Each structure stands twice: as C-alpha cells, then as structure tokens.
C-alpha cells in the first residue's frame, strides 16, 4: 500500500525512485508494481527520452477505469458476472440502479479475490466480511491495517465510477466478521 500511495502522491516516477522513497528493494518494488498493474490500480508508461538504451518506464495511478485497459476489463467482467448471478438468483425487481450495481459487483469481486468472504446486502448497501489474513497483527496496528482496506475499497468504488462511496468500515462487529457500509451520492 505504501508503494501505491507513493505513486498516487507523485505520479510519473520510475521504479528506482519508488524503491528509494519506500525503502523497499528494487526487485521487490518491481514485483509489487507488476501486481498493482495486473490489478488495474496503476498503469505503466514508457517514456521516450531520445537517448540510447532501454527507455525508462514510469508509473501512474489509475483514477478512472477508462484510463487502463486492465482496470476497464476487470470492471466489465465483474459486472457481467454479477448480472448473470442476479439473473439466476433474483426473484424480485432490482433494488439498485445499473451504476450502483456495477460498483457492488466490482467491489464484491475485489473482496472475494482478497479472501474476505463477502456477503452483500444490496438494500442496506453493506458487506459483511471475514477478517483479513492480517487480523493477528491488528491488535498492534489496527488503524494501519484497516486503513489499507478502507483506502482500497474507496479506490475500487472510484474505479467503477458510480454513485456509491464508503461510509464506514466497522472492524470486528462480531468476533469473526467486519462490516463495510456504503452510501449513495443521493443520500
């Protein structure tokens, strides 16, 4: 998360600069950059500098899914899967408008990929989640760990571009569940 924040703070920097700022070995930074790009959270850009050798690559945050083919594909794929699932399981009329449904689909898939076993309540705009794999560390660094999840949720919702935003992350509402509460822009 430190690496993503560094890119968001000052876009257009090279891996070496990011490694120095974050205090992370360059090879580790390269691995993390690859994962962030594969997830559609950042995009790389080759810069033509007019000198010999391999042109440098710089990294930018993805603020809108339309600026990254990877992010756009993740949004479209998640929404398609969510629509199919609702078509098979829903017996009543849709609760949410299509943009909000798209955001829920993308967030659900992100949380599922993170191993948080999400259960969504579309009417309440909430997700119940299993505690993250770092819950053993939370006693010492709860604000940090939960803050990382909170920021990722905000970014995922922003990438899906719609009326929903994070209202609050409630850690450990029960011994084995956390809860995300969302809000619609018109609320």
Average of pLDDT: 84
N-to-C SSE series? HEHHEEHHEEHEE
The description of the largest β-sheet is: 4 strands, antiparallel
Radius of gyration: 18 Å
- What's the total helix number? 6
Helical fraction equals: 40-55%
Query: Structural class per helix/strand content?
Result: alpha+beta
First-last Cα distance? 30 Å
Uncertain runs are none
Shape: globular
Tell me what portion of residues adopts beta-strand conformation: 15-25%
Task: List the strand order in the largest sheet.
Answer: 4-5-7-6
Supply the number of structural domains: 2
Number of strands: 7
Please give a structural write-up.
By secondary structure, the protein is α+β, with helices and mostly antiparallel strands. The protein folds into two domains: 2-61, Winged helix-like DNA-binding domain superfamily/Winged helix DNA-binding domain (Arc Repressor Mutant, subunit A), CATH 1.10.10; 67-184, no CATH class. It has helices spanning 2-9, 15-22, 26-38, 69-89, 98-113, 138-160, and strands at residues 13-14, 42-46, 57-61, 119-121, 126-129, 164-174, 177-184. A hairpin with a 2-residue loop joins strand 6 (164-174) and strand 7 (177-184). 28% of the residues are buried.
Features:
7 strands; four-stranded antiparallel sheet; alpha+beta; Arc Repressor Mutant, subunit A; 2 domains; three-stranded antiparallel sheet; 20% strand
What's the arrangement of secondary structure elements?
Layout: H1 2-9, E1 13-14, H2 15-22, H3 26-38, E2 42-46, E3 57-61, H4 69-89, H5 98-113, E4 119-121, E5 126-129, H6 138-160, E6 164-174, E7 177-184
Antiparallel strand pairs: 1-3, 2-3, 4-5, 5-7, 6-7
Helix pairs in contact: 1-2, 2-3, 4-5, 5-6
């Amino acid at each position: 998360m430190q690496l993503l924040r560094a890119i968001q703070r000052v876009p257009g920097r090279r891996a070496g600069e990011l490694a120095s700022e974050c205090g992370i070995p360059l090879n580790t930074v390269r691995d993390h950059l690859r994962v962030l790009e594969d997830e559609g959270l950042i995009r790389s850009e080759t810069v033509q500098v007019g000198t010999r050798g391999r042109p440098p690559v710089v990294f930018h945050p993805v603020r809108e899914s339309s600026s990254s083919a990877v992010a756009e594909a993740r949004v479209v794929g998640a929404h398609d899967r969510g629509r199919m699932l609702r078509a098979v399981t829903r017996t009543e009329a849709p609760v949410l408008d299509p943009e909000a449904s798209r955001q829920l689909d993308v967030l659900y898939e992100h949380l599922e990929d993170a191993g948080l076993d999400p259960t969504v309540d579309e009417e309440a705009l909430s997700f119940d989640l299993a505690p993250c794999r770092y819950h053993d560390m939370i006693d010492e660094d709860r604000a940090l760990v939960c803050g990382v999840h909170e920021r990722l949720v905000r970014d995922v919702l922003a990438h899906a571009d719609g009326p929903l935003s994070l209202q609050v992350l409630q850690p450990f509402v029960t011994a084995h569940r956390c809860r995300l509460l969302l809000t619609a822009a018109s609320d």
